[in-house]
Amino acid sequence: MSSIQWSAVLYFVGWILLGFSIVLFLVAFASLLLNEPYAMLFFIVFIIVLLSGLLIIRLIEKPVNIGVLDSLIVAILSFFIPGILHTLVMVLCGFDFWDSLFESISGITTTGLSVYDAASLPRTILFSRALLQWIGGVGIVILTLGMLLRPGTMAYKLLATHIRKEAVMPSIMVVARAVIMIYSVLTVVAIVFYRIAGMDWFESIVHGLTTISTGGFSTRAYLTGSTVIVALVFMFISAQSFPRYYMAFLKRKPKYIGMGPQIKYFVAINIVAIVLSYIAVNASSVNISFGDIVFTIISASTTTGYASVSIDELPIVVKYIVIVLMVIGASLGSTGGGFKQYRLILLLKEVWRRVLKTVSPQGRILTVRLEGETVDDDEIYMAMLVINLYLIALVVSTIVFLYAGYSFIDSLFTVASALGTVGLAPSIVSQSMQWWIKLLLSIDMFLGRLEILPVVAVMAHGIEEVKKSLRSLSL
Fold it and tell me: Under DSSP, is residue 375 helix (H, G, I), strand (E, B) or coil?
C-alpha cells in the first residue's frame, strides 16, 4: 500500500469544512426563525469553519490524483470532522461533552441512538441533529458509489449495466449527482406527506430529513396515527439501492423498477420476521398490536430506528429477531446500515456452493451467480471479511458492555443497534450511562457507518509504518 499524501488529504479536509459550514449556516438561520438563543453561536462557528476551509483550499494545491489509502482517510474524516465539530457546538450550547459526542456521532452516522428525551431538547438542536443525519445519509451513498462499488466487482456490474465501460469514472460522477437529486426530491416529498399526515412544518421537516437518511432522530418518543404509514413507506424506499432508482427512473430502464435480488431478500426476510414476531407476541402476555409489530420490524430492517412501542415491552424472542435484522441491515447503495442484504446474498450463495461442491463430481466447476453475472471469488472473500468484522465487533463490544453490569439481551441489542446504525434501544440508553460506554457506542456507530473495513485498513497501514520505523531505529 502506497504512502499517504497528506497534502491531498488536507485539501479535501478543506472541502469537508466548507460543506459542513453550510450545515452550520442553515442551523443558525433556523435558530433565528425559531426564536431560540443559539443563532449567534452557530453563526460564529459557521464563519470560523468557512474561513478555515477556504484558507486550506487556497494554500494547498489541488492534488492531481489521490490513492486508495488517501481516499479511505478522506472518507473517514468526512464523517469524523462533522461529528467532532457538532460535538463542540453542542458543548458551547451548554450540553455535557460525552452526551454531545454521543448525539453528534449518532447523527452523522445516521444511527439515531439518543441519551436525551427529544421533548427536552431545544428545537435548534433537534433540527441540527436531523440535518446532520441527512448529510450523513447522502454521504454514505456517495461513499458507496465512489469507493465500495469498485470497477470489476459484481456490485459495480449491477450498477453499471448500460453505462459505457470506457467512461467509468465520469459515469459514476453523473450517477452520484443524480442520486443526490433523487435523495433531495424524496426528502421534499416525505416532508409534504408528513405535513399531510398531521405534523406541523417543523416536525415534518425533521422527520423528512431523518426518514430518507434512515437516521431515526425524532421530535417525539413514539410515532402514532397516520404518520406511522408515511414513515413505513419512506423507510422502505430509503432502505433500497439509490443507484437502482437512478437506473429505473432517470435512465428509464423499466427492469430496475422490479424486484432485484436485494429487494427480494429484504421482503422475504421481513415477512418471515413479522410472522415469527406475531406468533411470539401472541404466545406471550404482552399487548402489542399487529401494526406495532410490523412497524418495529420494518424500522429495524431498514435501520431507521423509529419506535411506536417501547423496546423494553417486546418479548425476548422478538428482541432477538430484531437484533438479527439490525445486524443484516438494508441494501447496498442505500442510506441504511448493517452489513447489507447484498453481502447476505453472497454469503448464502457461497454456503450453497460449498454444499454442492461436497456432493458434486470431482473437477466440476461451481460458481456464484447473481442476475446472470458470475461473482469473483475475491469479492465473495471481501463480503465474508466484512461480515466477520461486524460479528467480531458485535461480540467484543457486547462483552465490554456486560462488564458495565447490563443484562446480556440489553447489551447485545444496544450494540447491534449501534453497529447497524439503527437507533432502536432499550431504556438503558440514557444520560446515566458511564462515559466510557457512551464512547464505546460512539465508536461502534462510527465503525458501523464506515462498514469497519476502511478503518481497519488505515489502522493496518499505521501499524506497518510504526513497525518500519522501529526496525529502522534498531538498525
Answer: strand
Domain ranges of the chain: 1-108
Alpha helices (runs of H) in 109-162, residue ranges in sequence order: 123-143, 154-160
**pLDDT in the model for residue 306:** 96
Under 8 Å between Cβ of 438 and 98: yes
Calpha distance 423→129 (Å, rounded): 13
Closest CA to 155 of 301, 340, 326, 304: 340
Q: What is the pLDDT of residues 136-145, one digit of tens each?
A: 998 877 776 6
Cα Rg for the chain, rounded, in angstroms? 22
Residue 289 burial (CB count, 10 A): 11
Please check whether residue 187 is in contact with residue 133, taking contact to mean a CB–CB distance below 8 angstroms. Answer: no
pLDDT single digits (tens) 375-386: 888 889 989 999
pLDDT in tens, 296-313: 999 999 999 999 999 999
What whole-number distance in Å separates Cα of residue 249 and Cα of residue 221?
Answer: 35
Could you tell me the CA-to-CA distances from 203 to 26, 192, 217, 219, 230 in Å, in that order? 16, 11, 11, 7, 13
3-state secondary structure of 111: coil
Q: What is the DSSP letter of 316?
A: H
Q: Interhelix angle for 341-359 vs 261-282, to 10°?
A: 90
DSSP element (H, E) containing 54: helix 39-59
> Which grid coordinates are listed for 220?
417525539
Closest listed residue to residue 329, CA positions, set 218, 421, 220, 452 = 421
Q: Can you tell me the distance from the alpha carbon of 331 to that of 242, in angstroms, rounded to the nearest whole number?
A: 9
Residue of 149, 18, 159, 9 whose CA lies nearest to 72: 9
